[in-house]
Design a protein that fits this description.
- It is a single chain.
- By secondary structure, this protein is of the alpha+beta class.
- It has a single domain (2-181), classed as L,D-transpeptidase catalytic domain-like.
- It has 3 helices and 9 strands, in the order ααββββββββαβ.
- The strands form 2 sheets. A 5-stranded mixed β-sheet has the order 3-2-1-9-4, with helices on one face. A 4-stranded mixed β-sheet has the order 5-6-7-8, with helices on one face.
- It is globular.
- The chain starts with a helix and ends with a strand.
């Protein structure tokens, strides 16, 4: 009996968490970010109980949300449901908070750090450095990419695992909204 009660409580807790992260923003009165990258510089509040929960003030509608402070991405459906969330490892250049759009994609290229990458989804340009999500074919992260890479080269690649890169590739087509928050 105690085992069933514990299982029931765990299930209810999980469902409550899922329900909390899938409430459409328009129902809770959260304002979206401005359309300019310089806007939205304030750090979005985080749910301390659920650090992977979608931050408040992260926009509305279907979008990719990227937190440069938390190194985390959320793929959010049109109804506000978090379809996926995962940790990322940024390059040396971060985009300013604001709203962007996916401008180009490449199935496979060599990153600015010399590492073969796949599922490249580009969305910003920071002083001539292109910023985008990608997955290293060898599963390395920018911190590990020291063999032959020039440490003085500025990189805009936001690295994901290969599985997360595939999810991003399927979700973020040309024109997809990308909201960058602190």
């Amino acid at each position: 009996m105690a085992g069933l009660t514990a299982a029931a409580l765990a299930t209810v807790g999980f469902l409550a968490y899922q329900a909390q992260s899938s409430v459409p923003e328009e129902l809770v009165g959260r304002p979206g970010p401005s359309a300019t990258p310089a806007a939205s510089a304030a750090k979005a509040p985080r749910d301390r109980r659920h650090p992977t929960a979608l931050p408040a003030h992260s926009g509305a509608g279907e979008r990719v949300v990227y937190s440069v402070d938390d190194d985390r991405v959320w793929l959010v459906s049109a109804g506000g449901t978090v379809e996926n969330t995962f940790k990322v490892t940024p390059g040396s250049v971060d985009p300013a908070p604001g709203t962007y759009a996916v401008t180009s994609r490449s199935k496979a290229v060599t990153g600015t750090d010399g590492v073969p990458v796949e599922h490249v989804v580009r969305f910003a340009d920071v002083q001539g450095v292109v910023v985008g999500f990608s997955a290293a074919v060898d599963q390395s992260t920018p911190d590990e990419d020291t063999d032959g890479a020039d440490p003085g080269v500025k990189t805009g690649g936001v690295r994901e695992s290969r599985a997360d890169g595939e999810a991003m590739w399927m979700f973020a087509t040309i024109g997809q909204k990308v909201v960058v928050i602190r």
